[in-house]
Design brief:
alpha+beta, 35% helix, single chain, 11 helices, five-stranded antiparallel β-sheet, Uridine Diphospho-n-acetylenolpyruvylglucosamine Reductase, domain 3, 280 residues, 26% strand, 3 domains
Length: 280
Amino acid sequence: MKPPPFDYIRVETSDEAVDLLAEYGDEAKIIAGGQSLMPMLNMRLVRPQVLIDIAQTSDLRGIIKKGKAIEIGATTTQADLGSWSDLSSTLPLLASAIPSIGHFQTRNRGTVCGSLCHADPSSELPACLMLLDGEVELKNKKGTRRVKADDFLIGVLTTAKQDEELAIKAIYPVAQDGAKYAFTEFHHRHGDFAVVGIAGMVVDNKIRIAVGGVADRPEVREWQSLEGSAIDDALNDFAWELRGSDDIHATAQHRRELVRHLGRQVIDNLHVQKNHELSQ
């Protein structure tokens, strides 16, 4: 299929983009990498009057460490982040998750902020943002605001971003001292969307995991001092709380089992990392 007709405007700054968003409102769509938007256009799931291309903006690209957070500009691609020299030391969770995002061709075009704004429940980057309690910075003609992940990610393909707002950066907190991180997911083929993905971290005796692909958005749970069978009991309770549904990719029962199995895998991985550090 081909997309419906639309006007195309390329901007050079974020100020130009928000001016256009103020003018066109919900008749406009932002395009940066286009890895999610273009298929939706071709299937006519969205019919914007105008596409605003921010890919060449001068002020939205780059990865900057500010204090205890990493700020990722809106046109920074997933490949840019994946090849960043400081990624493993500052954001080890994302270093583990990025190779699972599609294929290198799609990561070369797809942007970090684009994935967050698309808000697919099975996507890796939103789950990591939820686990780390990150933020998204939004801009309109009146100024900017930062929205916590838990408030930003509302549901399936739904965020707190308003029609006149532009997501200008993603903010991921840097790795905490002594914390360990792990990520895994199940997909039918490499590059497919995850059926279930799990991001996890442990700091001191606190275990925290985020599960994507089951509920309408990634969901997080946190426990203190889980050991042995208590881990399985906690994961089983969480799997039922997520209330997964049947679709063409998996049944709700299969998703619950994946939460139990992958969750145990992630938590065991975290314990191995922690014990290895203590033994050194």
